[in-house]
Write a structure and sequence with these properties.
Helix 1 packs across helix 2. The chain has 73 residues and is mainly alpha-helical. Helix content is 73%, strand content 0%. The protein has one domain.
Length: 73
């Protein structure tokens, strides 16, 4: 899928500079940035849910062994 983004000259220079420094295409730079942002927001969401559960349970943590058992480790 292709798409276009409107950038100011300053933004374009910065984006091109970033891509050049990292040895990647401009498209790859934007793709990486997008998916890193999505991952970061997902991680924050998971952390917030875990924190809410922690508060709901009276600020009690679970033993690590319980987590390992749940994950089959």
């Amino acid at each position: 899928m292709a798409f276009s983004i409107r950038l100011s000259e300053e933004e374009k220079k910065l984006a091109n500079s970033y891509a050049t420094v990292h040895g990647i295409s401009l498209g790859e730079a934007f793709k990486r940035a997008l998916f890193e942002k999505i991952e970061d927001e997902f991680d924050v969401s998971v952390a917030n849910e875990a924190y809410e559960e922690y508060l709901k349970n009276g600020k009690k943590s679970r033993p690590i062994q319980e987590l390992w058992d749940e994950l089959g480790i």
